[in-house]
């Protein structure tokens, strides 16, 4: 039976014989990590309703400040702690902070302050959670392996995104929000056990000779804790990835805020049904797409197409939203966009980092995933407020803005895909750029 299942997986997902155990364990690891976050996400998202739009925007701004501080602290720690220790250490750190947050919330008399602290810290964790995981994945899998298996591994995030809220719904009455914090903290101990096993599996049987030499050639992390910022601003490829993230965040924020506007007139119970339907539809479709389609798109159509597929579909789909600016059309648009992002865009975007050296991945990547992402959240939240509240732009007008962003997103996606292909075919490009960055004080 096990051999039959293994054979089916290898034929469907293109997992080679020696990779199966490592890929399945990677899938299980990201499933646990996503479950840990998804346990807390429904609780977090239920809190801002009492704060109003301005209160939420202010909280996002505070969140951005915490994110910058967290990135600086992370970059500084990497200069003193070996990355083999750092990766599981990040999850232990957040596990301990969740326990501390549990204690602090029990002592605070002001529930609004306690809830805002919960909201901000869980939001910071959400970005580090997957960012550190994918940094680890790009460190243990070669470029050729990533193209084949990252889509399947990414499906584990969807399973976790389904399992987490399901556990929350069944346990929240018994455990409460604070009890779920402790449950999440306990799940974050799992990486301490799994990560060393994954390294041994990949070192022993998951790498081909070319990948082994690639691993041996990787650089030791530099000693400058702020080098991640210098690396980002001196590398056009990384700036392109940052722009890619900003375009994604802009569309994400605009659609999210517009959905909030369109559902505000309904009762809380009906809004809960709408968002439940959106979450269930998104996660089921993402699971199927990520597990069976993503790797084939990347392998057969190439990275430029994989990266540009979702932005270009958004640019076309926006025509339907302009023609029929109603809730059901926006909800379908939102689901399609999220499925494309989780199943195709996100794993393809993570593959972009496999052609970069170790210092770039571990120092510049968190800046992009945390600071750029959260900074984009803040800017686009206030921009949406300006366009909708001050200028009176309706859904059709917002849709046209989204369409323009999607076109720019498509162009940068094509450029990134071609740049990735050039770096993959000529690895010396990355080393040359790294040396040029070092001459500007990066190393």
SSE order and pairing:
Blueprint: H1 2-13, H2 20-45, H3 52-78, H4 83-107, H5 111-140, H6 143-187, H7 190-204, H8 209-217, H9 227-233, H10 236-263, H11 268-292, H12 294-301, H13 303-323, H14 327-351, H15 358-390, H16 395-425, H17 428-439
Helix pairs in contact: 2-5, 2-6, 2-7, 3-5, 3-15, 4-5, 4-6, 4-7, 5-15, 6-11, 6-12, 6-14, 9-15, 10-14, 10-15, 10-16, 11-14, 12-13, 13-14, 13-16
Structural class: mainly alpha
Beta-strand proportion: under 5%
Show unreliable segments.
Answer: 208-223, 431-443
Order of helices and strands: HHHHHHHHHHHHHHHHH
Mean pLDDT: 76
Count of distinct structural domains: 1
Quaternary state of this entry equals: single chain
CATH class reads Mainly Alpha
> Main sheet, how many strands, which sense, barrel?
none
Estimate the helix proportion, in percent: over 70%
Radius of gyration: 21 Å
- E-strand count: 0
Task: Report, as a whole number of angstroms, the end-to-end distance.
Answer: 52 Å
Can you say what the CATH homologous superfamily is?
MFS general substrate transporter like domains
Q: Looking at CATH, which topology would you report?
A: Growth Hormone, Chain: A
CATH architecture: Up-down Bundle
What sort of overall outline do the alpha carbons produce when their principal axes are compared? Answer: globular
Number of helical regions: 17
């Amino acid at each position: 039976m096990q051999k039959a299942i293994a054979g089916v997986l290898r034929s469907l997902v293109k997992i080679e014989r020696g990779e199966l155990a490592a890929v399945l364990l990677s899938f299980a690891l990201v499933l646990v990590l996503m479950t840990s976050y998804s346990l807390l996400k429904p609780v977090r998202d239920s809190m801002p309703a009492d704060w109003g739009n301005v209160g939420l925007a202010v909280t996002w701004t505070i969140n951005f400040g915490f994110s910058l501080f967290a990135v600086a602290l992370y970059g500084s720690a990497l200069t003193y702690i070996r990355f083999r220790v750092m990766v599981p250490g990040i999850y232990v750190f957040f596990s301990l902070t969740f326990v501390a947050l549990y204690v602090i919330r029990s002592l605070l008399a002001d529930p609004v302050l306690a809830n805002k602290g919960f909201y901000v810290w869980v939001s910071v964790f959400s970005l580090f959670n997957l960012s550190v995981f994918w940094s680890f994945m790009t460190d243990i899998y070669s470029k050729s392996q990533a193209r084949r298996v990252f889509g399947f591994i990414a499906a584990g995030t969807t399973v976790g995104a389904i399992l987490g809220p399901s556990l929350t719904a069944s346990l929240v009455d018994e455990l409460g929000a604070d009890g779920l914090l402790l449950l999440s903290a306990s799940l974050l101990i799992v990486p301490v056990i799994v990560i060393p096993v994954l390294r041994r599996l990949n070192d022993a049987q998951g790498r081909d000779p070319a990948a082994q030499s690639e691993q041996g050639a990787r650089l030791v992390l530099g000693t400058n804790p702020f080098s991640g910022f210098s690396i980002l601003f001196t590398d056009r490829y990384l700036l392109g990835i940052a722009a890619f993230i900003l375009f994604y965040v802009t569309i994400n924020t605009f659609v999210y805020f517009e959905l909030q506007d369109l559902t505000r007139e309904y009762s809380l119970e009906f809004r809960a049904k709408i968002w439940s339907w959106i979450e269930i539809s998104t996660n089921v479709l993402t699971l199927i797409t990520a597990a069976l389609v993503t790797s084939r798109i990347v392998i057969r159509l190439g990275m430029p197409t994989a990266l540009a597929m979702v932005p270009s579909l958004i640019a076309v789909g926006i025509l339907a939203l302009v023609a029929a600016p109603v809730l059901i059309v926006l909800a379908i648009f939102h689901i399609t966009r999220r499925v494309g992002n989780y199943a195709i865009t996100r794993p393809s975007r993570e593959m972009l980092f496999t052609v970069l050296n170790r210092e770039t991945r571990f120092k510049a990547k968190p800046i992009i995933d945390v600071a750029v992402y959260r900074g984009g959240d803040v800017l686009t939240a206030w921009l949406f407020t300006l366009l909708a509240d001050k200028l009176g732009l309706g859904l059709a007008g917002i849709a046209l803005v989204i369409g323009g962003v999607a076109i720019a997103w498509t162009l940068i996606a094509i450029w990134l895909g071609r740049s990735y292909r050039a770096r993959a075919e000529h690895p010396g490009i990355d080393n040359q750029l790294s040396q040029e960055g070092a001459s500007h004080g990066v190393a």
